[in-house]
């Protein structure tokens, strides 16, 4: 009897299965069993697996192939693999992922030494080449019920692939899921509640979960989003039966949160004409009363669900269609404008391969990709050219400009604008992610409306968690009122989600100098020069990724002081522009900028010269003026008040420790 059985469902993974089976056949544990479940794959996935197997002759007797009678989905494939598995322990592996060579040996040895029925390890999420980020740190949970609660709460990744479980635990799984979404978590909860021992955890990251644009869990397109949500909703019924039979604590709350997740996911489609029908089709039994009277559900989720239901009802009663802001009003014969995408390149080798893949897969035809090499010391440009070889149709659309020296982001963008030949210009950062329809959607919106500026919503991604940043709908089409929102920090000023007519850059009189917050200075000037209404695409099409240690949230003292100096340089440019433009509430915009810089210094509160830095940074900004100025963000006021009180307290303590110092 083998020690560990690995179950691998196979369907349309010809491009990825080679690396997966290489990592499995190269395991240091000898006594294993590999069960490949052929889900009627239409490509050569199984042939590729057999070709790799030829290089591992000692594994041939350990490989079993199971073929389903029709394409059934990943959940059925995993169940079929479990039924034929003969190992003491069972684990799973997605055929487009890969594992460390000693994963099975380490998990099995930990289970045998401790007598545990389940052991799991750390997991990474990998996007593109060298795009790896940890989804969680060390975890000390060992109780099966506590692990289940943490998975329900989203604190632990609930993938079955990251651990092994005793074979007899699968005999107690009564509610098998369906489809390809959430099937592993539903099985995991039942295994945990059937486990009679503690759960072991190895604080090593040994499983690597690879995300592809075309995979089942991708939400890049409308069709993928709808398919994902519908399959996720199918598992609500078996989840409810399990929660009821196992008497899971706060079962009603968990089920409501599961259903709300599907409802909230569809918010990306709220500009679609069939949005109301989609919302009613997904979990029709979830009413406002059920959500409002569920104990433990946060008021934020209750309020958001009530807003969704009210918007759908108002839309149906009034018969008014929501403004799509993209392709619905564009005639088929209308020519699309040419778009120039400007990409600054400096020390982005880690992300360039995956980013270039996303960039060259864009659906837009009339486009120019302008890479501005800011004398990068690594192989960023070479990596881009290697990816370009796989897209020969894009070679004529790619240009590379090299700066004379390392000039910084603002100078790079200015050089890119001067060399651009498109009707519209947009910027892009190589360490972010793009929707495949990003530039095509924005170009169609510009062509249909004739607007000089087109915005879109975006995701903010930090440490694996994503949050949608949407527009203030009631003033989003007024450029002059939007200036105030940008200046007060209520609307993100990132230029990577704004398609801008190239002639607007000629109106920019004060180009920023620093590398941080230069977007705000440029955007405010172009909004004031805009003579048309703003067009807004109410879809999140850009993924703004915040990496640890980058300039926008530095970690060291020197990096914080560098950030402050760069923002001060751009503050001067913004002040000059506001003085010339005579905009209302311009002094409030400057105050918000000053308050933000002072609050940023709170990261240096352990430094001995913290009080001196606070007093020397914008010394004319008085607390009384901040508190008495109306219409400033209340949260910013409160944070600034608390920070000032702490500075006073520290200054008083320092004075008391030096009684001989004369007061001035």
Description:
The protein has 23 helices and 18 strands. The chain folds into four domains: 4-211, Alpha-Beta Complex (Spore Coat Polysaccharide Biosynthesis Protein SpsA, Chain A), CATH 3.90.550; 222-318, no CATH class; 339-546, Spore Coat Polysaccharide Biosynthesis Protein SpsA, Chain A; 557-656. With 664 residues, the protein is of the alpha/beta class. Helix 1 links the parallel strand 1 and strand 2. 41% of the residues lie in helices and 17% in strands.
List keywords for this structure.
664 residues; alpha/beta; Spore Coat Polysaccharide Biosynthesis Protein SpsA, Chain A; 4 domains; 9-stranded mixed beta sheet; disordered C terminus
Q: Any low-confidence stretches, pLDDT <50, length ≥5?
A: 318-332, 659-664
What CATH calls the topology of the largest domain is: Spore Coat Polysaccharide Biosynthesis Protein SpsA, Chain A
| Helix content, binned percent | 40-55%
Which geometry do the CA atoms define? globular
SS class: alpha/beta
Number of helices: 23
Distance between the termini: 85 Å
Q: How many discrete structural domains?
A: 4
Number of separate strands? 18
Radius of gyration: 28 Å
Name the beta content range. Answer: 15-25%
**Mind telling me the CATH class of the largest domain?**
Alpha Beta
Mean pLDDT: 85
Largest beta-sheet characterization: 9 strands, mixed
Q: CATH superfamily membership of the largest domain, which one?
A: Spore Coat Polysaccharide Biosynthesis Protein SpsA, Chain A
CATH architecture label of the largest domain: Alpha-Beta Complex
